[in-house]
Amino acid sequence: MNELELVDQLRKMSGRSRRGVIRGIGDDCAVFRPKTGEDLLLKTDQLIEAVHFPKSMPPETIGERALARALSDIAAAGGDPRCCLVALAVPRKKSEQWILAFFRGLLGLAGRTGTVLAGGDLAHDDKVHCSVMVVGASKRGKALTRAGARPGDRLYVSGKLGKPWDQKIEPRLALGRRLSGKATACIDLSDGLSLDLHRLCKESRVAAQLEYVPIVRGASLERALHGGEDYELLFTLPPHVKPLAGTTRIGAIVRGNAGTVWFEGEKLPPRGYDHFAG
Amino acid sequence: MNELELVDQLRKMSGRSRRGVIRGIGDDCAVFRPKTGEDLLLKTDQLIEAVHFPKSMPPETIGERALARALSDIAAAGGDPRCCLVALAVPRKKSEQWILAFFRGLLGLAGRTGTVLAGGDLAHDDKVHCSVMVVGASKRGKALTRAGARPGDRLYVSGKLGKPWDQKIEPRLALGRRLSGKATACIDLSDGLSLDLHRLCKESRVAAQLEYVPIVRGASLERALHGGEDYELLFTLPPHVKPLAGTTRIGAIVRGNAGTVWFEGEKLPPRGYDHFAG
What we know:
2 copies of one chain form a homodimer.
Chain A: H1 3-14, E1 21-23, E2 30-32, E3 38-48, H2 59-76, E4 80-90, H3 96-113, E5 116-124, E6 129-139, E7 154-158, H4 173-179, E8 185-188, H5 193-204, E9 207-210, H6 221-226, E10 233-237, E11 247-254, E12 261-263, E13 266-267
Helix pairs in contact in A: 1-3, 2-3, 2-4
């Protein structure tokens, strides 16, 4: 199978659903028609063999995970996914069946979340390297950001923290949409509670008091605080807004130096996963 | 410098120009506000060390080239670039100065073409691996595609072919915009005339008669036909449309099997650069 045949096959697999995609796989660019009154949310994320996943991970799982990570950011912005582009490099010895299995995994999640595979780029490299770019949509001016938390807001998280790093990712898209127009700030927990809460506070120019950490069975507090790969939503609600089902109140936003997180009477260092920590 | 500091630095370097980017670097998603009556053009492209460029290439050149390749596809769609996302993986031993130099190169071209750096993702890997995603815009329904060429149309190319593979890429954005509403089909020559003309003809369900190949000084006909990395535009105009300055007529669209290209009395095999040719 050469590239033209592979692209033809992917075009067939990606199906007919449009979601604003006027022209998809098979041209120089994909063409997307936005709806009036919507802002678009853009996110790119990398998934690299031996960095983000082991060589032994099945291609279906890699494909699903690559899309899921980017969708988690769309969820954090309160958005609705529309389409994605996928840049994939694979070793020359991988069969076309491997590539098709990768896309089957990715397209399974794409189908469940209404995300159209609109295009991409294929190359050969020494190991598997994937970048997924997702386009989502939200009502004009309603995208959730990290920047709106205010002292007095209450801090919540979905689910429990400290999951095994290879647990299936379920992007919290339904919750994100419910938070749109309610939450003052939101971020997805990809790099660990301590680092991601620090980021939210820094962008909002506030501090936080962390009071409680919901931990998955068998995980340590250390892992729940700093482990990353949870893909839950961390968000803030003003005091008058009722908590949402399935979420846990874990603290409050307070005045203080931008980015400071207090926990058990001490400053919590932002020690989550930082690719570029010196 | 850790990731937070590096991202802060990139945010400063990316400047204040908006181009519809309501929220850029530093949040889970970038937020982009489309203009009414516009379609968006989406393109992603990979640039990999030891595959697309040698280890010795300076970071500024890699950064510029990574963006230029994606902008060439926006040009082929007759679009106007708006913003880009950059997923970059670099070896741990590269300094932050290397990364900042990469982005200086990229942002130089971004500034000249009105492309805002709206976000991205940084990771460590064994070697440099970059994916750039560009969002462009065109008037609703006016995006050029590969699919509209008709028998009787004339075939044109910008510039001359067979360039050295590492020549500076000048995306033909001004030409692309002039072609919008005039050309019946357009593609950028990234993989070689023989393969890209085959693709244009296949999508348009027509054949082509290639009559003349403009060759850069010192290059062979073989290289001009099959070499790739030219980043010129190949396009078709109906017979009544006047040729555009700086472009060369190289043949005509004819009836025939979809994708067939005739040259010097024989079928020209699509032999350009195909990452996945068996």
